[in-house]
Structure formats: structure tokens, C-alpha cells
């Protein structure tokens, strides 16, 4: 703590001992409040997702998530992508301190050193990707309604009640792997229990004619807790041929992979 100067101020009038006592008492109170202020509560949550091939229900890999929250606010998020044989496929680190919906992040494929991510600069939001030691990037101008990568999960959680009422939301999605930004929309599809809890399924698709050629993504959330239960669509992990997996990723409520494996492909 920095030193505090409490040297009395010179005065041409008679010193006021009562005022000095009041000042000293206020200072002591402030110091006591600082000394005994409760530290920020840090909470760590771990979650495992099981990614299955949509064509044959074969386990492709697992996503091992670690969320760090301080006083309930998500600050950092780490993900290890692990193949069915235990080999590490990729890692991802996200930082939400600048923006809860468009975090800074960096994904690194451990097999071929492919990298993609995003970072804030003084000029805006910079997307980047690197393959075969060739770095490419694109600067996006500042925008209030931007969503990127796993920040979409936080966006859905924060707007879940509106979405459950049937309200359609649209936003700009920054896609680092393609160095672009597109407008997407999310719409309620249906409500059916999943993994034994009340749930709702939503569709995410381009808010333009691109939706006629781009496959949608379906996501299912627990309606009572706002927890992600299932993701169905193209993922950010590539297969050995360099193509992104088309998978169903299940996040069972009890963490039991057997529960996830029973889901329809």
C-alpha cells in the first residue's frame, strides 16, 4: 500500500483539535475497511464434452473445459481437446476481461501447429490464423453486438429468457478460421428434456441468404440453469485430412459418458 501523507496543513487560525480527531478517525476507518475487505471470490468449474461423429456415433475426442470466475464473472477459460486414444489434439485459451461475448483467444493444434484466434488492439478486434508458418490477419472495427468463439455461450446464457419466449436474436459473429465476420441469428426450435432435465433447442444460422448453403448449428440448453447440454454441427477441430469435424458434442449433466453416448447421432 502506498504511504499516505497526513502532515497537518498550515493554518493562520488556531488549530482545531476536534477537526483533527475527526480527520484521524475517518482515515483510520478507511484503512480498516481496506485491511478487512473481503477478497474476490474465485470459482473454478470443470466440464467435459464428448464429441461424436454424426454419421456413426463414434467418439472422436473429448473437450476438457476449465472455467475461472471471480465474483460470478467469467474471466478465463481453458480447453484441452483430447483424442479417443488419449493424444492431445489442440489447446485453447480464452480471456473474457475485455468483452464477455467476444473474448481474446488462441487455439493451437498440437499436430500441425495450426493457430487461430483473436486479440484486441487500439484499432479494433484482430482476427488471425497461422498455417505452415504463414500468418494472416484481419482487423475488425469496434462493434457493440459482436460475438466470437465460446463467447457465444455466454451470450445465450445472458439472453436465455428472451430466447425462450420466442424472441429471435441476431448478432455479428467473428470467425477467426475464415478471417471474417458474418451476421447470424438464433431461434428457438423446440423444448424437450435432455439428460433428464428440462431443455430447449435453438438453431444458429446466417441471417442472410447464406443459410441456404451453410449448414446450421443446433444447440441445446438446460432451461433452469442455462447450462449447455448439446452442440450439433461443424466444430473448430480438424481431422487428419484438415477438414473440420461434423459432430454432436454432449455435455451430460452428471458427467457420465455413457449418458452422452446414448444420444441420437
Give a description of the structure.
- The chain has 265 residues and is mainly beta.
- It has 4 helices and 15 strands.
- A 15-stranded mixed beta sheet has the order 8-7-6-5-4-3-2-1-15-14-13-12-11-10-9.
- β4 (88-95) and β5 form a beta hairpin.
- Mean pLDDT is 85; it is low at 1-37.
N-C termini distance: 58 Å
The portion of residues forming beta strands comes to: over 45%
Strand order of the largest sheet: 8-7-6-5-4-3-2-1-15-14-13-12-11-10-9
Largest sheet geometry:
15 strands, mixed
Q: Got a strand count? A: 15
H/E element sequence = HEEEEEEEEEHHEEEEEEH
Class inferred from helices and paired strands: mainly beta
Query: What is the molecular shape?
Result: globular
Rounded to an integer, what's the Rg over CA atoms?
A: 25 Å
The percent of residues in helical segments reads 10-25%
Write a brief structural summary.
By secondary structure, the chain is mainly beta.
Task: Write the topology of this structure.
Layout: H1 17-36, E1 42-53, E2 59-70, E3 73-83, E4 88-95, E5 104-109, E6 115-120, E7 125-131, E8 134-140, E9 146-148, H2 151-158, H3 160-164, E10 169-175, E11 180-191, E12 199-206, E13 217-222, E14 228-238, E15 244-250, H4 257-261
Parallel strand pairs: 9-10
Antiparallel strand pairs: 1-2, 1-15, 2-3, 3-4, 4-5, 5-6, 6-7, 7-8, 10-11, 11-12, 12-13, 13-14, 14-15
Amino acid at each position: 500500500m502506498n504511504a499516505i501523507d497526513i502532515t497537518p496543513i498550515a493554518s493562520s487560525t488556531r488549530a482545531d483539535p476536534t477537526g483533527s480527531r475527526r480527520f484521524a478517525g475517518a482515515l483510520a476507518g478507511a484503512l480498516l475497511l481496506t485491511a478487512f475487505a473481503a477478497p474476490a471470490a474465485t470459482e473454478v468449474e470443470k466440464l467435459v464434452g464428448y464429441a461424436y461423429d454424426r454419421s456413426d456415433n463414434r467418439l472422436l475426442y473429448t473437450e476438457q473445459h476449465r472455467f475461472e470466475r471471480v465474483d460470478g464473472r467469467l474471466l478465463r477459460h481453458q480447453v484441452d481437446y483430447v483424442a479417443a486414444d488419449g493424444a492431445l489434439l489442440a489447446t485453447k485459451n480464452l480471456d473474457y476481461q475485455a468483452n464477455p461475448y467476444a473474448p481474446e483467444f488462441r487455439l493451437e493444434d498440437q499436430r500441425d501447429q495450426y493457430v487461430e484466434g483473436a486479440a484486441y488492439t487500439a484499432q479494433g478486434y484482430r482476427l488471425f490464423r497461422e498455417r505452415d508458418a504463414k500468418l494472416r490477419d484481419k482487423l475488425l472495427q469496434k462493434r457493440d453486438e459482436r460475438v466470437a468463439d465460446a463467447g457465444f455461450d455466454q451470450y445465450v446464457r445472458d439472453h436465455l429468457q428472451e430466447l425462450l419466449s420466442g424472441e429471435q436474436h441476431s448478432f455479428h459473429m467473428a470467425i477467426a478460421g475464415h478471417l471474417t465476420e458474418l451476421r447470424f441469428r438464433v431461434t428457438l426450435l423446440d423444448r424437450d428434456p435432455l439428460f433428464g432435465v428440462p431443455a430447449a433447442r435453438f438453431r444458429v444460422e446466417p441471417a442472410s441468404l447464406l443459410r441456404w448453403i451453410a449448414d446450421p448449428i443446433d444447440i441445446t440448453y438446460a432451461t433452469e440453469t442455462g447450462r449447455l447440454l448439446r452442440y450439433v454441427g461443424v466444430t473448430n477441430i480438424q481431422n487428419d485430412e484438415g477438414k473440420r469435424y461434423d459432430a454432436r458434442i454432449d455435455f451430460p449433466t452428471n458427467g457420465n459418458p455413457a449418458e452422452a453416448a446414448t444420444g441420437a447421432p
